[in-house]
Amino acid sequence: MAATMRDVAALAGVSLKTVSRVVNLEPHIRPEVIRRVRAAIAELGWVPNGSARALRTGRTNVVAVAVPHLQRPYHALLAEALVVESNRRGMQAAVEPTHRDPARVEAVLSSVGRSFDGALVMGRLPDGLDPELLRTRPVVLVQAEPVDGVDAVSVDLVEAASLLARHLVVMGRRRPALIGWDRFTSGEAVIAAALSPDSPDTLPRVSGVTTRADGAAAAESLLASSPDVDAVVCASDEIATGVLHVLAERGIEVPRAVAVTGFDGIDEGLFATPSLTTIDPGPAALARHALDLLLDGLSSTPPQAGRHVLAPVSLVRRETTLGQGVA
User: Fold this and answer.
1) Which residue of 53, 178, 252, 256 is 20 to 30 Å from 135, comparing CA positions?
2) Considering the entire predicted model, what is its pTM?
3) How far apart are CA 42 and CA 320, in angstroms?
């Protein structure tokens, strides 16, 4: 049987009226009460009636999800998580591909207050975007470089780097190389410091890498310039897939000769041969944090903007570091 508002109230230990006030973003509710009600809603899977709420509040009850590129597997995965979480909160989500075009992003942001109640802006921001457009409306940045005065949620990159570094040390890897870590703000510095604390600047690296084809080309470059590399640490599973293709073509055994790791936890890594060790950034958790921040910003008494939530990650150990048949 589907959960009801009464079930939420009972689990949270509050009245029906309090649940209604939290859902409708009314002011003067203690933060701990809001947390209890939201936790109860999440645990029970209760979906508020969005249409009724829109009539009561005068809002559109629609949130924009600005996505750089839907053809990138992780962008699609994260966008889906944001849509699912928005729906779970009783809101509709409109996915808007921007292709990192500042005019497209500005068009989405300019529609906040008319077509959309707020916006979730994914990925690296395009050059030339006016940051004031982000600061003057309900916006949450998701996996993007931070902007002063704008709420944001991103993965804990330091934790991710630490997990990868410890795992590779345990597996006996001493000569790692990096591919594509400029994807993240300060990404190359963070991962290099974790992998080689004494001499991070000496690690071989290839930047400006995004696609499978880029990953393959980067692998060719690394094998030519640093043939003694024994681990390739990729900033995405997509890049790692291209690296694995080149290693297989060259007859280089993975992981006996070279270990490979990815980042994103997409399904393609599970079905790669060998299966790919990766960092799972937990898109569902990112989405929950993003919607929490956005709904706080939409409340009648929003907190001061500029909060940054770091979401935990997990290391998924598979055959590209453990060996075939071990994962």
Assistant:
1) 53
2) 0.82
3) 35
Q: Which domains does the chain have, with CATH numbers?
A: 1-46 (1.10.260.40), 157-281+315-322 (3.40.50.2300)
How many other C-beta atoms are found inside a 10 Å radius of the C-beta of residue 235? 27
Strand partners, 92: 62
Model confidence at 7, in pLDDT bands (50, 70, 90)?
confident
- Quick one: residue 149, left, alpha or beta (phi over 0 = left, psi -120 to 50 = alpha)? left
CB atoms within 10 A of CB 251: 7
Q: Over the stretch 226-279, which tens digit does the pLDDT of each residue have?
A: 999 999 999 999 999 999 999 999 999 999 999 999 999 999 999 999 999 999
Per residue, the 3-state secondary structure of 162-181, as one string, reads HHHHHHHHHCCCCCEEEECH
Helix ranges (H only) for the chain are 5-12, 16-23, 31-44, 50-57, 73-88, 102-110, 132-135, 157-170, 187-195, 212-225, 237-250, 267-270, 283-298, 319-322
How far from 166 is each of 160, 162, 173, CA to CA, in Å? 10, 6, 10
**218: DSSP letter:** H
On the CB side of 104, CA atoms within 13 Å amount to 16
